[in-house]
Specification:
- The chain is α+β, with helices and mostly antiparallel strands.
- 34% of the residues lie in helices and 17% in strands.
- The protein has six helices and four strands.
- The protein has helices at 3-10, 24-34, 54-61, 87-104, 120-126, 158-161; strands at residues 46-51, 75-81, 108-113, 134-142.
- It has a four-stranded antiparallel sheet, with helices on both faces.
- It is globular, with a radius of gyration of 16 Å.
- It binds flavin mononucleotide.
- The site of flavin mononucleotide has 9 residues, from strand 3.
Length: 167
């Protein structure tokens, strides 16, 4: 298996992190990878906010039970988008790039739902987002507590979901 394909297969949602800072350069590298995601008509409607301030991370962790584990993370990336026709797809593609770039750097990550969540507006206000920007996702980042976390995930079997030519 090529290293690139292996990267896709070892990415896991990581929700427990070591108390270890992620160097700013690595965070920048992750955002750099995000901007290469595909977008409909190449509009690149996104904005990324990197949050490392503990107090602000804790405020985001308090947004809902599904975001609670953010409090143990070293950083959070908030992905926003202007409301284009395909903002959700575009923002999700960027979110996937972030998860994969983090994995490539040995950093654990987990996608936290943004758009359509009752706290989306509150998260936007906490981060001073300009009017009209939609929250796509919050991504928790940190060095995994379990150093062996990056291994092939258990997923639905290929034979069960692959259909050649027709169902
Ligand atoms: C759109 C989306 C929203 C998600 N929201 C959350 C969330 O709010 N909180 C959370 O802990 N995990 C969230 N996840 C992570 C999923 O729970 C996780 O991807 C899934 O259980 C599969 O595990 P894996 O990422 O390790 O393959 C979300 C994933 C996606 C794609």
């Amino acid at each position: 298996m090529s290293d690139q394909l292996n990267l896709l297969k070892i990415r896991r949602s990581v929700r427990e992190f070591k108390d270890q800072v992620i160097p700013k350069e690595k965070l920048k590298e992750i955002i750099d990878a995000a901007r290469f995601a595909p977008t409909a008509r190449n509009v690149q409607p996104w904005e990324f906010v990197v949050i490392t301030n503990k107090e602000r991370i804790n405020q985001l962790a308090g947004l809902g039970p599904n975001a609670k584990f953010l409090s143990g993370s070293a950083a959070c990336i908030a992905v926003f988008s202007t409301e284009t026709n395909y903002f959700l797809e575009d923002g999700s593609a960027a979110t996937c790039n972030i998860l994969l770039a983090a994995t490539a750097l040995g950093i654990g990550s987990c996608w936290i739902a943004g758009d359509r969540k009752p706290y989306a507006q509150q998260a936007a206000s906490l981060l001073n987002a300009p009017q009209g920007l939609k929250l796509i996702s919050l991504i928790a980042l940190g060095y995994p507590k379990d150093e062996n976390v990056f291994k092939t995930a258990t997923k639905r079997n290929l034979d069960e979901l692959l259909h050649w030519e027709k169902f």
